């Protein structure tokens, strides 16, 4: 008795992360293809006709990816070396009461006119100290920029102490 193959070749109808780009012929698990990719319209059976039909769309998408890549590289070059100043509440030793997050850094850079989404700011951990910190912005797998984040203690108004009498 012949054994059924575990994989099949399919033609991608969309760009799928970690699998391939539109128009690529890839080999995937039969269950993944039959239960997800084919019913969702993300792929077709890889036949000569289907490959020929999608060739024009594939070329158009390749151009779009090149344009996107150029835009991303320009955005990274523009922000490289920029400085984001963030004020946060801190004690006398410079320890923050909270922390500076990716969202705050991205918002500060956007306010300066840079095109920076929250998710491209990569902090190993939230910043919890006053001072200057080098922060990496990851625009794409091979496109990064480094900015300096200057955390300063927020100026607090000296509230009068409660009088005893």
- Outline, from the CA principal axes? elongated
CATH C-level class of the largest domain is Alpha Beta
Architecture of the largest domain, CATH level 2?
Roll
The CATH superfamily title of the largest domain:
Ribosomal protein L9, C-terminal domain
For the largest beta-sheet, the strand count, sense and barrel status come to: 4 strands, mixed
Radius of gyration: 25 Å
Key words describing this protein structure:
disordered C terminus; alpha+beta; 3-stranded antiparallel β-sheet; Ribosomal Protein L9, domain 1; 32% strand; Ribosomal Protein L9, domain 2; 4-stranded mixed β-sheet; single chain; 165 residues; 2 domains
Secondary-structure topology with pairs:
Layout: E1 7-12, E2 25-29, H1 30-37, E3 43-45, H2 48-79, E4 83-88, E5 95-100, H3 102-111, E6 121-122, E7 127-129, E8 131-140, E9 143-153
Parallel strand pairs: 4-9
Antiparallel strand pairs: 1-2, 1-3, 5-7, 6-8, 8-9
